[in-house]
Amino acid sequence: MDNKFSKYLLYAIGEIILVVIGILIALQINNWNQARIENNEERIALLNLKQDFDFNYETLDGFITQTESTKTSQLIILNHTGNKPKPKKEEEFNILLNRSLSLKEYFPRNGSLDELLSSGKLRIIKNQRLRKFLSSWHPLFENIKTREKTVLRDIYKINEYTLTKASWLNVDAVVGTSPSKNNSYPKSGFKIDNRSLLNELEFENMIENASYQNDLLINQQKIGLELVKEIIELIEKEIKE
Fold first, then answer.
1. Number of other CB atoms surrounding residue 191 within 10 Å
2. Which residues, 6 or more positions from 68, have their beta carbon under 8 angstroms from its beta carbon?
């Protein structure tokens, strides 16, 4: 009887061990499948993020170039205000005036990042540093937009001032901003030289304010460009691994 009981006990223990092993194997297979699914999801997310941030880098870099060009035109204008020498031709000043009021709003491509954030799936990005940088992009972008709004406000003021003190028709006749290539603007029918703006202290102050705000915008744009560059480098590293 003792011998039979011992054999039964060993058999039961063996059965339990086999069941435990089976459960462990099943859990391991499930974990492996889950890890494979998450790895695939992460790779797809990284590829999508790479496309978006490549676009963001290229466009932001172009916007920095444009903003710097606008600021340069504003500084040139400031070198002609008051008792300083004036441009020899009104056309030269009209070109500068048009360029000094040029600013496009920056709109990045954030679809992939927004989807990860809204779905709570940013966690599938395993690299903690990359997750941190991705989380920092929206606040930094908002800073850029805030600076843009300030510059646009100053540009609007200059534009309104110019409407009462100078001729936009003379500006458009030089820079050719007509929507139709076959339609060119004539010069103003009034006796006016837009260089007279250079003798107005208020105009000088408005151009200076716009230039100062442009400088702050450029700083924010460059910080944003550096963040985008670091994000792209980390994404590329993760894709290769």
1. 6
2. 218
Tokens found for residue 9: 């006990």
Which pLDDT band, with edges at 50, 70 and 90, does 67 fall under?
A: very high
Neighbours of 67 (CB within 10 A): 23
- DSSP letter at 80? T
H-only helix segments in the chain? 2-78, 90-100, 111-119, 128-165, 168-175, 201-240
CA dist 60 and 42 (Å) reads 26
Q: What is the mean pLDDT of residues 26-47?
A: 77
Task: Decide: 125 and 132 in contact? Cβ < 8 Å.
Answer: no
H/E run at residue 182: none
Stated pTM of the model: 0.82
Q: Over the stretch 140-177, which tens digit does the pLDDT of each residue have?
A: 999 999 999 999 999 999 999 999 999 988 888 887 65
User: Is the separation of the CB atoms in 193 and 90 below 8 Å?
Assistant: yes
